[in-house]
Write a structure and sequence with these properties.
By secondary structure, this protein is α/β, with parallel strands linked by helices. It contains 19 helices and 16 strands. It is 44% helix and 10% strand. The strands form four sheets. The chain has a six-stranded parallel sheet. Strands 13-10-9-14-15-16 form a six-stranded parallel sheet. A two-stranded antiparallel sheet has the order 1-8. A hairpin with a 2-residue loop joins strand 11 and strand 12. Helix 8 crosses helix 17. It is globular, with a radius of gyration of 23 Å.
């Protein structure tokens, strides 16, 4: 065993990757990611005390989010870049130590002479042994390990959403306080299983808060999403394809490409950029190219032009791929040999190199035609609330199925396409994230003008369905959110889906089904607890699950 990672849905045998990640990361990168997370915990040991004393440092806030974001599945495969982030964390820890001394604050005794606060990176580190000391397997008790990793993976999801909000100037010090507390709790051997269980649900509480923070940041900057038909064909101009999740990055790209003769296309989770008024106003934002992230190894070939990765999800290119010299990464994303664009002192990215390269490329090759419809975040749904309520009261809509989440490569995920196709015609799918690509081109029609697939946007926009559910509870005077005609059949893949799940559990939503498998990091005892307390379960097959949801 040269590594151990079980943070994503595709982990080997649904147990753990031990030689190389199914995602494509090497054992070295996996072990470095473990060390990076450990370095972030070392920073938190100092920053938490300073924050509680009223002292806050912007570079620390940014690092705490970015460091965990780098370790998310499919975000960064570049070992050298991860090493630099580890060194940055060690240096930040030293800076904070001096700040603590200047303030006359004594370090918490439990961190004195602790490896967490004394670790120094060395190129001679035995990464396999170091990972065993600081990574997943450091915790021997599988139930404690399960609870610690649920908290950590929830924090990784929070870090992604918090990082996007941070880039838009939106932060919340209370969220950072919890984030630091929870990071340090994962290395606190004094905490009982009961205390860790409570922390899991508290992580869900702060997951709701960080998603609300990002929702507010996005809508303040780019307007409230509106129902939009998005072109899935191509134009005649050369183009730039932008993937990932960060809307600030696409805004800057649109500004810099305007009038250049270069079109911009979204890819995968960047599709919802078309729904925001301040982004869709750009005429050269032509459409969305392709499908979910894992199709990129073929779609990047046919796109012909440059590709910009603002965040995850990266798939390692094939040995014969022809697009490596036209891929650019930003922020937490990285891959060996791909060009990295870094923000200037004002936080802006200069896309000149990308634009000039695009001008030399052929226009994208057409792989499909038509349009898809989205933009049904909570603001848009509330705008047509009267129509929705009437459809429910009249019986035209009998049930809503939340099918938000992630798509990925596992063959069993064809379940979600079949499930959507076989749903009763009086059912509406509420979706967000890249899971939508399993059924958003099926032409499932509408109910009294209400599309049967309502796409709220990116994975973080799962928050919208919680807001909508709470509003419907109020409208229908329901005693409990679980009394509403709403079911949850969630597809998961990586850690942003974990924080969404924990947020839903915090809100008290029961009988959630996740698939295509339950997370490997949920131990049998923890799974039993979640099933007994919340009815959490996994998908089975389409026929039996339809009977269960519509019993």
């Amino acid at each position: 065993m040269s590594m151990f990672c079980f943070q994503c849905q595709e982990t080997a045998k649904n147990e753990g990757c031990t030689v190389k990640g199914v995602c494509g990361k090497t054992d070295e990168v996996s072990n470095l990611q473990d060390v990076l997370v450990f370095a972030a915990k070392g920073v938190a040991a100092y920053s938490s005390q300073l924050r509680n004393a009223g002292k806050r440092y912007d570079k620390v806030d940014e690092y705490l989010y970015r460091s965990l974001f780098i370790s998310i599945t499919n975000a960064n495969f570049d070992g050298d870049e991860i090493i630099e982030a580890i060194k940055e964390g060690v240096n930040l820890r030293k800076f904070l130590k001096s700040e603590l001394e200047k303030a006359g604050i004594a370090l918490d005794p439990k961190f004195e002479n602790n490896f967490l606060t004394t670790y120094e990176y060395s190129a001679n580190d035995d990464l396999v042994e170091l990972s065993k000391k600081v990574g997943v397997l450091r915790t021997e008790n599988i139930d404690v390990r399960s609870l610690r990793e649920m908290v950590l993976y929830g924090l990784k999801g929070m870090a992604a959403y918090g990082f996007h909000a941070y880039n838009l100037g939106s932060t919340d010090n209370d969220i950072y306080k919890f984030y630091e507390k929870a990071l340090l709790a994962t290395v606190d051997d004094s905490l009982s299983a009961e205390e860790l269980t409570a922390l899991v649900f508290e992580t869900g509480e702060y997951g709701v808060k960080v998603m609300a923070l990002l929702d507010g940041a996005n809508t303040s900057a780019y307007g409230t999403p509106v129902a939009t038909e998005v072109n899935i064909g191509v134009g005649k101009n050369p183009g730039i394809l932008i993937s990932g999740h960060d809307l600030k990055d696409i805004k800057e790209l649109l500004e810099q490409t305007e009038g250049t003769g270069v079109d911009v296309y979204t890819h995968s989770e960047m599709l919802p950029a078309h729904y925001y008024p301040e982004l869709k106003k750009y005429k050269h934002l032509v459409g969305n190219y392709g499908n979910a992230w894992y199709h990129q190894v073929t779609e990047f070939e046919t796109f012909n032009g440059p590709v910009v990765f603002t965040t995850n999800c990266i798939v390692p290119p094939r040995p014969n791929s022809t697009y490596n010299d036209r891929i650019f990464t930003l922020n937490a994303a990285g891959y060996p040999g791909w060009k990295k664009l870094k923000a200037d002192e004002n936080g802006k990215i200069d896309y000149t190199e990308v634009i000039e390269l695009a001008k030399k490329c052929e226009a994208p090759k057409e792989i499909e035609t038509g349009t898809i419809v989205g933009g049904f975040a909570h603001g848009q749904v509330f705008a047509v609330a009267d129509k929705v309520v009437e459809a429910v009261k009249s019986g035209a809509i009998k049930k809503f199925i939340v099918m938000s989440g992630c798509d990925a490569r596992m063959a069993r995920r064809s379940y979600y396409t079949e499930f959507a196709e076989k749903l009763p015609k009086d059912t509406v799918i509420l979706t967000s994230g890249c899971a939508k690509f399993r059924y958003n081109k099926l032409g499932l029609g509408d109910i009294n003008g209400i599309p049967r697939v309502l796409d709220a946007g990116q994975c973080n926009d799962s928050y919208s369905w919680a807001v909508v559910a709470l509003k419907l509870k109020e409208i229908f005077n329901a005693n409990d959110i679980n009394d509403l005609p709403i079911e949850f059949n969630i597809a998961w893949y990586e850690q942003k889906a974990v924080i969404v799940l924990l947020a839903l559990l915090y809100l008290g939503i029961k009988n959630i089904h996740v698939g295509p498998t339950l997370p490997a990091f949920i131990s049998p005892n923890v799974a039993k607890l979640l099933n007994e307390q919340f009815g959490l379960g996994s998908i089975t097959n389409v026929e039996d699950d339809l009977k269960m949801f519509f019993a």
